[in-house]
Amino acid sequence: MPQHSVSRRHFLGVAGTGAAAAAFAPLRPVRAALQAAGIKPIDLTIKEVKVYVLKSGDQIASLVTSTGIEGNYTLAGRYFHPNWSNLGWLEYARQALPGKSVLEFPEFTNQYRSNVGQLSYASAINNCAWDILGKAVNLPVYRLLGAYRDRVRAYASSQHLKTVDDFVADLQHAKGDGFTAYKIHPPWLPDNAVDYRLDIDVAKAVRKYAGDDFPLLFDRVGGYTRDEAIKVGRALDQLNYVSYEDPIPTSDIDGLAQLAQVLDLPITIGEFLFSPYDFTEYIRRGACDVVRFIVDNIGGITGGMKVARLAECFGMECQPHNWGTALDHAVHFHCELAMPNNVWFEMTQPQGSTDRPYFKDQIRIDKEGYVPAPTKPGLGYEIDRNVLDNLTNKIER
């Protein structure tokens, strides 16, 4: 990784509190014109950093500007990350952010100069900043990113169920709700063991009950050996599945390249990569056909769009992860709405299982099986402040 000794501020010839003004010097004529028209510029200086600690144990990060615009995102543990922990997020953020402009967020969330992976705290900061920017201009975030579509087709994403009959029933429930695609998370046995023969039986039964033309996806979450992954993959090829996600551990890049060569169905990888800069090697070596990401692992919405554009440049589909609360879904959804190389919205099955009472808005599919874009500003799913206050155990500052 290249090391850079000249900071952005020094490159611009400014330091300290004058950085933002110098960085946006080309905008001064525009600001002057706005002021002449009686339109005041929006002050996006971060005044306060805090965390809502809810009685349920959920935590919500908050950045508040000097004009009272608040940006929010969830703080929660998800998947293993070599330096991923939200413990200490508040201490870091309140030291780094107050007095800075939200417009400078690339400076304190970008990891281009780092060779140790993506800063674990960056995602919540980045997502809160995008929430603020959208609210400041009264637009949903995806319109700031560059809107490509106004809805995304959803697949119902199963839990790790136990039996063949469980999956058939889950598929039937999803089809009854109006879903037009379905993803299998096959069973885990005790001690995180897998039975690839059982997984093949699940895949066959779901295909039988889904019908020949119903898109099906399959996610083993890195559980197979190479040999097991090839056997299951060949069965999925015959069953016309459209995505084979994380068949073996992401660290086995040679094995993934081998699978991508010997199987017809697309190999989907990226959920367990922890920096936008890690994706290039997998693409270069042909170790994946579809790129996937979790914004929490790669620096937030900004990192997600970097990965999406990288995949686009190589003519590859990008299939973001979706799991968790409305805000967890929202950050990936805005990326999907802004990229031309996305097909799917992952909806946790059963639909509505990740609702929280403190959101005024719910994420649901329409009658055609698509999730419509949010219309409210920022991340687009409004927090009911009265409900949140009643559910808050304390606010840490």
Question: Mind explaining what this structure looks like?
Answer:
This protein is α/β, with parallel strands linked by helices and 397 residues long. It has a domain of 229 residues: Enolase-like C-terminal domain (TIM Barrel). Helices cover 36% and strands 16% of the residues. The protein is built from 15 helices and 13 strands. Strands 4, 5, 6, 7, 8, 9, 10, 11 and 12 form a 9-stranded mixed beta sheet that branches. A 4-stranded antiparallel beta sheet has the order 3-2-1-13. The longest helix has 16 residues. The protein is globular. The two termini are 36 Å apart. The relative contact order is 0.14.
How would you briefly describe this protein structure?
The protein is α/β, with parallel strands linked by helices.
